[in-house]
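Cell cycle checkpoint protein RAD1: structure tokens wanted.
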Amino acid sequence: MKFCWDVSHSTNKMTTDYVFVAKLANLKTVIQLLRSVNFKDSATCYGSQNGLKLTVEEAKCMQASAYLPKALFEQFIITEDFLFRINISILVECLSMFWTSINSQGSTVALEMQYKGVGHPVTVLIEEDGVIVDCSLKTQEPDEILDFDLHPSTVVNKVLLHSELLKDVLSELDPSCNHLELFLSPNSPYFMISTRGTASEVQVELPHNTEMIETFQCNKEAKSKYLLPHIKPAMKAMSCSNKVSLRTNEAGLLCFQYMLKTDEGVNCFIEYYISPLVDDDDDNE
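Answer:
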């Protein structure tokens, strides 16, 4: 893949004009990652030597992050860490302009991103067969986001399974219900997901030793409830990911971590943190 703009000129300008320049030819993976967390318009973008992280929050009780590692890019130059807020809906729309070509074999669509620093927009250049689309996206001061974290020492239960299995299970649940209940135990029934509404109750029990579940580490019995509208956005990543890890702590904080592996062997991740319902009174909210 060759970019039609002058790469050397852009790189030279980088040392004086830009704090960040990145280029890649695999737009499909980037678009899939961003679409998976695009349930709100506003996202906080953090750039470092490790790559890019875009985070979206909902009511301070649900948080989703898409990780774009440095290895995903053909060129990734950054002179200082940066943090800003951006309209992720517009960003996804810009990147998807050539989606028909991007989603086909042998795609020739390439991307370059540029950022000069605080107060400046992000410039997105998309090129296909000599045609260049130049988009300028406004950046804003970032909102304060919660520091959701599940340190390994605080994890009570962990399940690593194929995304396809979780997708099949969740598709069987009643979508009209307001909440979902997750049950994990070191003893039978081990792993169960259920929904309960005014008209029906659905329980799906998963065997803990199936080939579709690669890891089942359950230290103690735990049962927590979550708002189904908070679970639904986390389901968006299932169609493009290979595996998903479910982790919970003592408080019932739930983390979905999806892994997406590119054709080049680069592992990308999408994380969703979801706070549990505090008590049954929340069921009626």
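The chain has two domains: 20-140, 155-274. The first strand starts at residue 20 and ends at 24.

Cheers.
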